[in-house]
Amino acid sequence: MTQKISGFFASMTMVALLTGGSASALAADNWSVAAGDSAVTFTGTQLGASFDGAFETFDANIVFAPDDLAGSKVSVLIDIASVNTENADRDGQIASADWFDVAQWPMAKFETKEFREISPGMYEAIADLTIRDVTQEVQLPFSLTIDGNGAKASGEVTIQRTAFGVGQGQWSDTAQVGDDVTIKIDITATR
User: What is the pTM of this model?
Assistant: First the structure.
């Protein structure tokens, strides 16, 4: 189900992700994202100044349980055209062929391969992030709080946009638009 998320654009990428549940041993639970209480945002830099954005539409399939990390998985599809940086010119550039090329690659994908527990309430997702048909492995640390049938997860990861081919031609130079993009997730979900 497509989730509409209000907020600033960003990232890419990617991602709506990671919520968890307390389940019986070896029985990961299915979770539904609460759209109005969740966001996938990012921060980048342009001419040395930071800017924020959000992807307002994404689909998330979440199966997660702290006591069944091996059986847990998250898959997120992000609609790149739903980017919102509160600057129409920048949003148009982001969708263009030189940047994300939404005409050819309209979606970014985040798909977990493994979860690790770092400490109580802290986890790390090892995942493949695909942007512009380029796949790179990322490690996303996140905090998780579970209360009954509800869960909240927050985390962030920094990627290099040029590793995914985001910013072609003159935009591959990182002097005007920085290479580092920090993707943040704040997810509320119910089982």
Answer: 0.84
- Please report, to the nearest 10 degrees, the dihedral formed by the alpha carbons of residues 103, 178, 56, 115 taken in order: 100
Residues in the chain: 191
pLDDT digits (tens, 9 = 90+) for 11-69: 322 333 333 333 334 579 999 999 889 999 999 999 999 999 999 998 889 999 999 99
Architecture field, domain 2-190: Beta Barrel (2.40)
**Domain segments of the chain: what residues?**
2-190
- Across the strands, what pairs with 84? 54
Residue 29 CB coordination number (10 Å): 23
Per-residue CA distances from 96 to 6, 105, 116 (Å): 22, 11, 37
How far is it, in rounded angstroms, from Cα 97 to Cα 94? 8
Contact 26, 33 (CB under 8 A): no
Structure tokens at 180: 């580092």
Kindly report the backbone phi and psi dihedral angles of residue 25, in degrees, each rounded to the nearest multiple of 5, phi listed first: -50, 135
Q: What is the pLDDT of residues 113-136, one digit of tens each?
A: 999 999 999 999 999 999 999 999
DSSP3 helix / strand / coil % (the chain, rounded to 5)? 15, 55, 35
For the chain, first and last CA: distance in Å?
15
The residues, ordered by sequence, that sit 6+ positions from 30 with a Cβ below 8 Å of its Cβ are: 62, 63, 191
